Amino acid sequence: MQLPQNNNANWTSRYADWLIRYRWLVMIAAILLAVAAGSGGRFITPNNDYRVFFSPQNPQLQAFEQIQRTYTKTDNILIAIAPKNGEAFSKDILAAVEEATEKSWKLPFALRVDSVSNFQHTIAEQDDLIVADLVENAQGLTLKQIEQAKKAALAEPVLRNILVNEDASVTGINITFQMPQKALDEAPQAVNAARALAAELEAKYEVEVYLTGMVMLTNAFFEASMSDMGSLVPAMYLIILVITFLLVRSVSATIGTFLVIMFSIMTGMGLAGYAGIQLTPPSSAAMTIIMTLAVADSVHILVTMMAGLRRGLSKHEAIRESVRVNFNPVLLTSVTTAIGFLSMNFSDTPPFHDLGNMTAMGVTGALIFSLTFLPALMSVLPVKAKVSNSKFSSRMDSMAEFVIRRQRPILLGSVVLSVAILSFIPNNTFDDNFLSYFDNSISFRTDSEFVNNNLTGIYQLQYSLDAGKDNGVSDPEFLHKLNSFIEWLRQQPEVRHVNTIGDTFKRLNKNMHQDNADFYRLPSDPELAAQYLLLYELSLPYGLDLNNQLNISKSSTQVIVTLNDMGSVQLRDIAERGTQWLKNNTGITSYGVGPAIMFAYITERNITGMIYGTLSALVLISLLIMVALRSFRIGLLSLIPNLLPAGLAFGIWGFFVGEVNMAVSMVTGMALGIVVDDTIHFLSKYLRARREEGMNAEQAVRYAFSTVGVAIIVTSVILIAGFAVLSQSAFGLNSIMATLTALSIAVAIIADFLLLPALLLKIDGKTVRASATHSLSDKEQGENYASA
Hints:
One of its GO terms (molecular function) is transmembrane transporter activity. This is MMPL family transporter. This protein has three domains: about 5-45 and about 45-50 and about 220-425 and about 600-785, Multidrug efflux transporter AcrB transmembrane fold; about 75-180 and about 185-210, Multidrug efflux transporter AcrB pore domain (Alpha-Beta Plaits), CATH 3.30.70.1430; about 445-595, no CATH class. It contains 25 helices and eleven strands. It has helices at about 5-20, 25-40, 60-70, 90-105, 145-155, 185-205, 215-250, 250-275, 285-310, 315-340, 350-370, 375-380, 390-405, 405-420, 445-455, 475-490, 500-510, 525-540, 570-585, 595-630, 630-655, 665-690, 695-725, 730-765, 780-785; strands at about 75-85, 110-115, 120-125, 130-135, 170-175, 205-210, 430, 460-465, 495-500, 555-565, 660. The strands form four sheets. The protein has a four-stranded antiparallel sheet with strand order 2-5-1-6. Helix 19 (about 570-585) crosses helix 20 (about 595-630), helix 22 (about 665-690) packs antiparallel against helix 23 and helix 22 packs parallel to helix 24 (about 730-765). The two termini are about 20 Å apart.
């Protein structure tokens, strides 16, 4: 992987001759390879479970799964019913709730349904405990009975701010699901059934229905990725082909580019299928990214070929020269790009591993097809170009002269501006909010925001408190510890609702004392408390037991804390405060868990992992550049334009946005692998001029601009356009990642066209080889440009 010397140039020339001679055989072999690789695509299966974002070793996932095994699962759909008249406790609305509750039991995989209608209300009648639905036969209720039900619901901590809001204008039905996890369409089945029920309610009653919950979140991931594949991929194809045609001005070259893109995608996705990689919302972006990156290799070969045709070379001579000039740079840039994406394996999020691996395989495919199939195809297809100097080439010459004349101001200005922009990097804070992963075109986000603003919180925090012995939850000492924790939680500003068995004990104690409000407190006798609990459990209907609050041996209880919408920093803070308060005040050790907490910690874990990943990629890429360019000094110099764009992009991000989430944490390694391409191409042409043509630094800069400047412009425009399309994704992780990557590429082209040549002129004033310090005439320079 060395820069072409004379012997290497001869080898690549012979390789180009071989490609042209056996072009039909090469094309057939390339097509068969693409079909064989692409056939693995049939093994790719979608995975829309939110748990896929977490590795099996993730401590928050392990803690969450442990509590899920102990109590009833919390995967749910919350149906929020908002009456148009603002009164949830009326005959029609309660009838709607009653109907929806009954039908919710029939939804696929439904395990439990809770609403104000089937809430197990308890009252005392002499020595008997009566347990019954709070609302029965709503249409037959009197206004007085409705008012009594409303008063009871608003007074009940189990219902208030979770299934009915403070002014009783919105009510909810919470459906808990037990997914068997045997099919990939389980969540869509449940969601489609819930949506059908919601549509039925809206058509029959004067209500608006909103759906949220973890099952809706899982489905939203799936819908976002499918939406992207249905809209962004066709848009990408169109934009890339149009830009390629406009910049290359050749139908044949555009067709060749299209086929290389298609074969590269087939290779990346097919090999992913063979490897057992699943399609997730982040990894689904691989198709778009491969499409974007596959163009770069093709463009460098095509632009050089078209330039040769414009200089009067025959088609085969132009192809031979293009392969000779671009073989090693294309090889090196493809390898470094693949390394950048493979660094994503250091992430704590498996879908990002898949994204990196799929893209790396696609980039490898693009390398193979652009150096085999594309030249062979171009030797077959008719390609014409007028013998002339292109406007782009003239502008590249002007750019070279500008940099040479103003190298000192450019260096000084670059340093000052870079320092100023980099100073905003500390403005970035590690914060995340998985609701913001979706834009407003995704109903999950708009519905969840309505629920958060009008009914209850959308995040849940779960604690499991261990009493230390069987039936220990009835021990008054333990109950008082539990109660003190609950009281502390309800005082926290982030908390919207707390579900606890303690409230049930208080209500039963009151009931068993003739509903005397003075006895709404925890029972003081452990045997009485156990008897109350047993009596209550025996009275509960099937499906509404206490398994969501107590384990089988009644040695521990679950506290479910519903939280307002907030960022990951606040989520981690409230979870850690709760753990610390328990430890300091009760001696109980329990950690807050739940999907929201899992997402809250993932950004920080990803940042840590990607620091190692980026550093590893940086070391490998730097060593490759030094070896390939055969210059430690130039290789070291290349680090500046390679690292600076990502740093400046984060500085700009810190100034305008300032929030670094899970997507942003992935950008550094990706950007490093992508932006290094243009640097390598520029340096390879610069050193070719120095070593093969004996030019001095200024002449070599002119040569580099003349030979590769247009290709760098074309590839950068296509890359930026490609990631700009991906930035329109409805899935926030993909859109933010694409936006920051496009910004890095834009900054990189400025660095490669201004800072890099200015640095070369500054530190490489003497020739690499002792010879050729002489100045060439304009005619000699033109001849050298044409020959190279």
